[in-house]
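HUMAN:
Just now I want nothing more than another pair of eyes on a protein record. I would be glad if you read both lines and explained how they fit together. I have put the entry right below:
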Amino acid sequence: MSRIETSGIHREPSFAKTPPDVSDLFGIAKRVVPFAMIAGILALGSAIWLLSHFPPSYRTSTQLVLEDSVNEYLQSYKLTSGPGLGRDQYIQNFIVLSEDVLMPVIKKLNLINDPEFGCTSDIENSNDSATGFSFNPVTEAKKSLSWLMSVSGLKAPPPQTQKCDESVVFARLADKLSVWWVSNPSVIEISFESKDRSKAALIPNAIAESYINSTRENKQRAGTLAVNALRERLDEVKAQSADAERQLAKYQIQSGDGSSTARSVTNFQRDELSDQIAKARLAALDARILRDIVVQTKGSNNIPDNEHIIGLRRQYFELDTQAREMEARVGKKHAATVKLRDQMADISNAIADERKRIADSYATQFEFANSKYDELKSTVMQAVHNDADDNSDDIQLRQLESTAKTLRETYTTLSHRINEASRLERGELVLPFARVLRQAELPTKPTPSKKRVLFLAGSTFMGLALGLALALLKNNPLGVYRTTAQAKNSLGLISLIIPRVNKKKYSGQLTEYALDRPHSRFAETLRLIWSLMKAAQRSNKLQVVGVVTALAGEGKTTVAANLANQISTMAGKRTLLIDADFHHRSLTTAMAPQATHGLREALQNPDRLADFISRFERSGVDVLPCPVSEAVTDAAHLFGSNQMEDLLHRARQSYDLIIIEPPPIALVSDARLLAPLCDGFVFVIEWGKTSQRLVLETFSEFNELWERVLCIVLNKAEPTALRHIEQYKGSTYGDYFDDRTLHVTRSGAPRQITMSPTVATPSSNS
């Protein structure tokens, strides 16, 4: 069949998807933004309500000032080999977080049974006790949203089935603590955050007390080790001194010389060498004591730091600060955080190596002092040997006197040191390693929490995003037809829009909407379709028109029924409406629900067409229904048969216009077999829903369809969206449309129109 000539209404199609119209996008934005704002406000309100039922956090801190004088005093008397506090200050913040300090606090305050740290209490009971609520909808809301609160960090409940021990509580307590240096490098600040006001003040003070006690105990242990080492050495020197005195007395008795007043110049030189030997022996003794302390303490904690270790500690502290900041921003497993922790580990190893080197140097110093002593002793022995022939007796006497004198001096020195160290062991010299500069006080107001702010901001953003997504899902402008310009540019066909019927304002049958509201835009669009048909009839024989869609549910039944009613009522044309959809039969249900015979019987006997037709009395339209009880499997065969051609031939002789409603083109082949028997088509597309791609595929697979399409009808358009799309038409564009209900009936040739202020009710006859 040749292409329908419609006075130039066709244009060259692009057969490509067209982008959304700019005015449509602006309209969507105007509708979407308020909806998204409302959703965001609701989400923010919900977040505020949720946060109001969770206890706030309280943060307090205590400050410690480190004492330098005590350590310097102990070092000045060589009672400890530990470093001065000034060199070791940067590592104190790690000592505060050590097990020696925190474990006594855990045991003292019984934190292992605390719901905030342990796992023995139910998390909901802990929250209820904190907020004062019992079982209520708030508790149920908390349970349902616990995962969200856990992710945001506002609530991190321990698993109820997990068995906790002290190590787990220690890790949780350390995570909640913050230790840093203030402006003065000798002042440490310990901060703790808790949802319990009393705990927020109690725990920092307990940690400060535990830190002071721990350092005091470490001092006492170091003093005890020093006293034990000195006492062992004192007993050894005492025995050596007694033996030397006995040997000296025995020699004096044997030689009969109780004094050694007569001395030559050489003898004075020997005395000087003896003094040097005594000093060398004392130096060797000091080096031995330092070495023994290092060995007995089994570590290098009491080894003094040099400038190199101080520099490494400063680097370690700076890297730790950077790692904590990086961990707070990106997490523990981030590559940057791991890299910083690796650098810290390298510096710790370097410090340990340097301490080991210093510890080894004590042994070297001891060996050097012992070698010097042996060398001096060897020198004296050599001098004595050289002068042995002349005054061997005098030399032996003086050697014994020198040995006895040296041992007496050593014994006196060790006794003095033991007395001082005993005072340290008894606690007389154990002064606080640190003092409390400021105690943590009971907080009066909650601590501003970034997590709460982030939770509110995140909830608002999620609400906005969800509202925006839902609004865009309803008003998706991509890949669908929403304006007549899109359809014209894509398909090259006249395009019309039929607005969606508001079912809240209209309770009648949709197939009678144009009869009830003849001055509405809906009815006026149908009259435009009739005008296109009349224009096509001037140059073509247009008598059989198919109302088709690509998919089901796009409104072809409503369009076909109302179009037939309009033509029959307003134009007075003899109109036949055929329900050719053997699958759904929605037209039959709406227009001829009582029919028992119809299209199938008419195909079997075309000569009896009039016997199977039902009259829709309100508009005078004749309906050929399809009253079958189940889907017909051979429908395609029936439409492609000679019987269908004969049936339409009979209908052409009796009617001015025949409107056929076949099944959807893209779903079944019925419409394609019926298409050669139709003179033209009205193609219905659901506005904003049917995919452009599907429509283009339908036309590309069925080339004959495009040539005989009278117009495209964008059905079920949203009235609100239409107002934005058609703003360019002016504010008076819709003044001629009237959606008031009118009862339009047909009685013979004349038309009768009666006004009614009420909404039409469903009726098959009027």
Observations:
- The mean pLDDT is 75.
